[in-house]
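#random but structural
TW: two for the price of one
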Amino acid sequence: MMEWHFNPHTGSPFWLDCASTLGWDPRQEIHCFEDLKRFPEFQDEWLRGGPVRRWIPKGLAGKPVYVFETGGTTGIPKSRTAIEDFRIDYELFSETLPDRYFPKGANWLMLGPSGPRRLRLAVEHLCQYRGGICFCVDLDPRWVIKVIKKGWMEHLKAYQDHVIDQAMTILSANHEIKCMFATPKLLQALALRLEKEGSSLAKVGITGIFCGGTEMTSQWIREAIEE
């Protein structure tokens, strides 16, 4: 790893510039986890602003590059680049999914943030890697954050209903969707909507749910499983 990132032929401009200020060669002097303390602390501000190309390793030049950003809840959004890591990560994750609940070839519903975030591409690739087709419904968490800060709870409820309406349309269109990703609040809202209409996630054909993106307490997880 040290050789890759700090070799002039494969490293990124950012880390090569960093190495030039250290006064020592990481390729020669970093041998274990403890040695990493010799580096200065990584600053969040380094991920804010551009040019973003300073993060692209020379060894991966010419490959498609994706930009992923945070939700911007603590200031200006932080940007990072990715090339193949989201595919590699979720192909490994795929090996952990039980076919009983996440059958190969099943179609998925992706109910969560897309936009400049990694999650949608990763879940879509997970679905495709397992042989399915992914149906995506977008959520803009930055707008949700603004609405909450302004205290516009009616707007927040209307936006959530708008997202759930789209999910319901897809689930009722006979697309043979068996698996889904959703954030905790959207999963709960979808389940409540289905219950209100005399149905459930199981009745519409969902056998496996991948939930994440925001905090889930142990109590919430237990209640979700029981329901």
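TW: number two ↓
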Amino acid sequence: MKIIIGLGNPDSKYENSRHNAGAICVEAISRTTGIKFSEKKALALFGSGYIDNETIILAKSRSYMNNSGDTIKYLRDRFGVQVIDLLVIYDDMALPLGKIRIRASGTHGGHKGIESIINALGTSNIPRLRVGIGRPESEDDNIAHVLGTFKKEEKLLLAETCETATQATLDIIKYGTEWSMNRYN
């Protein structure tokens, strides 16, 4: 069993924000795989299905980004999976819009959601797929940037990026993280 989870903020006012790029990509994975978000719990929306004979839990966090560790720990404990069987999909300002990066582990890199997950699980060996959202012109604008919505032309590029993230996720399930890192990074 594998759990694929997209991070974001739960309120509707954040629905199309850059910080919700992970959740937006998980919605694209849902459309492609047919795995529906059929269960709504306090910390997550999720559903299950099969991809290449592997049981997959597809989830979107319902906790705020800075508390993402609560959601990940809940899902890991509920389904009894190892950390290696998680794939966390989230936004990353260090990557330009349109780019993805796959990692088997790593630091939080200043991302509060990943920091929360590392703290909750007690390890940084968490498979992840980072979705680039680019940086604002000034570091003073970081919060406004991640909580801001995508412009029209950015939405088109994000949709393409989510298609790539979907294929990368399917490849991670089929071929593993290392193989997929070599292909997509």
